[in-house]
Each structure stands twice: as structure tokens, then as C-alpha cells.
Amino acid sequence: MATREFAYLSIRELGQLLRSGETTPTELVEYCIDRLETVGRRLNAVVTVTRERALREARLAEAELASGLDRGPLHGIPYGAKDLIAAAGYPTTWGAEPLREQRFDFDATVVAKLRDAGAVLVAKLGTVELAGGMGYEQPNASLTGPGLNPWNLEAWSGGSSSGPGSAVGAGAVPFALGSETWGSILTPSSYCGVSGLRPTYGRVSRYGAMVLSWTLDKIGPMCRSADDCGLVLEAIAGPDRNDPSTLPTPFRYQPEREPAHGFRIGVLEESLETAQPEVRANFETALEVLSEFARLEPVTLPDFPFNETARIILSAEAASAFEDMLDSGIFMGLTAPEDRTGGYAGLAIPAVDYLRAMRIRRQARSALGALLERYDAIVHPATAVVASPLSMRFDDYAGKGRRLPLGSAGNLAGLPAISVPNGFGERGLPTGLQFVGAAGSENRLLAVARAYQERTDWHLRRPPL
Amino acid sequence: MSEERVDGEIERRLAGLRERFPERFTQPQWQEIREDLEQLAKAAATLRRRPLGNADEPDFIFVP
Fold first, then answer.
1. Following DSSP, what letter does each residue of A312-367 receive, concatenated?
2. pLDDT tens across A58-81, in order?
3. Is A213 a catalytic site residue?
4. Which of A26, A148, A186, A451 is 20 to 30 A off residue A353, Cα-Cα?
């Protein structure tokens, strides 16, 4: 039964329908599977629909809710996971054609945690091959083809969490799990008009997910709103003995304990000259909205070579994580020609270069921490441009300045960030607003984003599908 | 590091990779790898311009 419209409802709205008996987990799952098989496939957002597991989990949720066992706000809610996150028995391709048949016999910790919270896995969603770690330079870099943008089918979805961005943006799933090493949650969230949260490094276990960079990888939610991101984060966060990077304390999403106004926000204006005019204009308009509930002050980032430091660390760790596969030659079967050679230079990075980058990283993290002590968040455009046309290489569309410094700075320091929609740019494509906070400050960051979304409706807009 | 020394370093690294993967790549692919090596060498050169003291530790902690 797919005659009712569930596509763009929030997790809380779906939860109300489930608890009032107006729908069931099975109906929601069938609706999402139908939309994934049609709209999702058209967008190249789907690798595998996990139909049998989804229907089994939905029937269980249905029985539990009927018997009075309520596992919380995600109980009976369908979701998708980026296909570098393992789900027992199903292919986990890492987006790579040579790994099309790769399977794991266990659930990643995040999938297990969502199962325990009653959420229902309906699909493994598309990703740029190897999370983009081989240096792809254009959209066609996945075994499922280029991720298409629900707002404009001639535009890219962003990456590397391309499937989660497209699927949530198209209303094919209420939420999805993405991952970010350097921009891979915030970029597709911004490009596809969804709300995406990059948690503090160590907040969420990566066990069972592909490693690109041990010290940079994070898993986080991509949703319809900041509030939904909070609900999902609480379910997936927490210590895990299988991931030594995880923080020792659990995370509780506590919107009721956060203020709704009176925030202090630092406005980062550097690099705005590299942004498209519509991105700049939407940013200026968003600042006017923020000024209704926050005190805004100009800030500058401490002076560090953020991009170069991140480049060395990511390249060295990726080369080490994939060394056996690079040796084997298996990557010669990757989709993007540049990805067949892109990982090899990292094998030749001297240890002293990596260590120097890690020494500078410590200083940079300390300086950023001192800056963020004074603010609830720093705000900046999530991306300098809207999604590029499918036919263009990224640098040809956006120029070399496409990597905004706050992206590398925030990822190097392990800081949480959220991208929320704040308007539209050229070719009818969404733009995003990025808030970055101090390590561990997700509740405050989400409060700022919620306050913005209470005054705007960009996150409620629907693409013309 | 001077420009000549950077170029020499890139050639040494490229030679090491050619020795490790003698049959793997075409000439245009080796050129792509060389360009990647150049980018990493430039990034490393940028990092070397930032002064560090003897006691400046890397950002990870060894836990015995």
C-alpha cells in the first residue's frame, strides 16, 4: 500500500502516526521500499534494498508497539545506511565495483544500535567508491553511477554520502546514516537540501564501517531537520569496545535543556569571495535571521595550514588502510579513471611528513578549541557553490577554492558541525548553512540549528520530482 | 627545501613506486601519480614552514 504520502514527514510526525494507529511500521517500510525502487533508483541512490530484513524488523516493531513495548522515537521508523556500513549478510560494496560481492556476517555497531532502538533498515545507499578516498574529481565515481540531485537531475548529489543525500532529499527514507572524513556529510546535505550532522570525533562508533582515515572518519545522521538529527544521534552514539576512538560517555539529546535564543555566534567571513553570488546572498539573509535570536560577532580562524595538514594525514592513513588492496591491483577496476591511480602517492609519504602534520594538528586543535570557548557556534556557508553539473569536473566548476577552510579545520579538530538548508542558488539547487561548535557541544549546536529552522522553512521544501 | 630538492624528492618517490609496481600503470597513469606526488610534496613543504619546537608532540597519545 503506497497510496498515502509519508515522503517528507519528520521522525516525530511519523512516530505520532505510528502511535495513533494511523499507520504501521510495515506500511511505512512498504512505502519507503516502493519509493526507493522508483525514485531512489532513478537517482542512483540505492545499492541494495534490504527487503527481507526490513519486513522482518517492521513486523517485530509492529508487534512490540502493539504490546506496549515502546523503544523510543525511532521505533518502527525506516532508514538507509551508506553502503560502507556493514549489515549482516547483505552486500557492503564500499561503492566499488571490484567489491560488489563483499559481505560481512555482522552488523556495524551503528546498525546494531539502531536495531535496538527499533529502527528498520530498508536500504544500503550509494556512496562514492571508497568514500572518495582515491581522489575522485568528477561525479561518475561509484558502481551505482553518479549520484543525481533530487532538485535537478542534471546535477550531482554531492559526495561521498551521495545516496543518503539523494534518498533523504527525495523523501525515499526519513533519515539515513552517512559518514564524513572531510566534507562527506555536510556537502551532500547542503547540495540535496537536507539537514546533516557531523558528530564530534569519537561520538559514534565506526566499528563495521570502512576505514578511510582512523583519525578523521565520523558517522552521522542525515535527516529532514536538526531535531531529527538529534534523535538519531542519541540512538547511534556511545562508547564501543570495538572502536577505541569512542568517547567514554553516552550522548543524550536534550532539547528541553537548551536555550532557544541568546546564543553567541561567530560569523566567519573569510573565503566568502570564493562563493557563488547566490551562496553569499543566502548567507547574508541567514545572518539576518540569526540576529533575531543570537548575538553575532565577526571571527577569523587561527592561522594554520588546515587544508595541507588534512591532505597529508588523510593521504597517509588512507594509503595505510588500503595498502594490501593497492598492492593487489584490485583498484584498477574502480569506476573513475583517476581513482585507479589516486591512492598510490600516499604510499610514498615519509613518516616525518605525517608526524609533522599530526604535530601541527595538535596546535590547530588547541587554537580552535580556545576560539570556540567564546561561541555557541561559528557560522559559514556549508559549501561555496551549489552542486556541480554532472558533466563537469569539480575544479572546472568550482575552482581550486572549493574546499572552504572551515571544513578542513573542523574535521582536523574533530569538531561537530551541522548543515541546514538556507535557500536556493543557480539551476534551482539548494544552498546550505554550516554551524560548527566546540568538541562535545552537539546539544548546543542542534539548539542553534533548531532555532534557525523554527524561523525558516527551507528544510520543509520539496524537490520537483 | 629548495625547488630543485623538492623535484629530486618527487623523482625518488616516483622511482620507488615504479620499482614496487613495475607493470601496473601506463605512462599517462604514471604522470597522474607524479602530479599527486607533487601535490603532497607541496603540502609537506607548506607544513615545514611552520615552526615546531622539540617538545611539540603529535596529536595522538600512546597508551601502554
1. HHHHHHHHHHTHHHHHHTGGGG-SSGGGGTTTSGGGG--HHHHHHHHHHHHHHHHH
2. 999 999 999 999 999 999 999 999
3. no
4. A186
Q: What's the pLDDT score for residue A334?
A: 98
pLDDT of residue A402: 66
Cell 558502481 identifies what position?
Answer: A143
Domain span at residue B2?
Answer: 1-29
Task: Convert the pLDDT of each residue in A223-264 to its tens digit.
Answer: 999 999 999 999 999 999 999 999 999 999 999 999 999 999
Q: Is A431 helix (H, G, I), strand (E, B) or coil?
A: strand
Catalytic pick among A10, A82, A189, A205:
A82
Q: Where does residue A1 rank: exposed (0-12), middle (13-18), buried (19+ CB within 10 A)? A: exposed
* Predicted interface score ipTM higher than 0.90: yes
As a whole number of angstroms, the distance between CA A127 and CA A131 comes to 6
Cβ-defined contact of A361 to B59 (cutoff 8 Å): yes
Number of compact structural domains in chain B: 1
Whether B55 is covered by a domain: the verdict is no
Tracing cell 539523494 back to the chain, one arrives at A166
What cell numbers appear for A331 in the block? 583498484
Strand partners, A296: A265
Evaluate whether residue B12 is within a structural domain.
yes
In-domain check, residue B7: yes
Is B39 part of any domain? no
At A35-61, the pLDDT tens digits run: 999 999 999 999 999 999 999 999 999
Q: Which three cell numbers stand for residue A19?
A: 502511535
User: What type of residue sits at position B55?
Assistant: A
Chain B hits for A357, Cβ within 8 Å: 47
CB contact under 8 Å between B59 and A365, yes or no, is: yes
H helical segments located in A195-261: 226-236
H-helix segments, A193-305: 226-236, 277-290
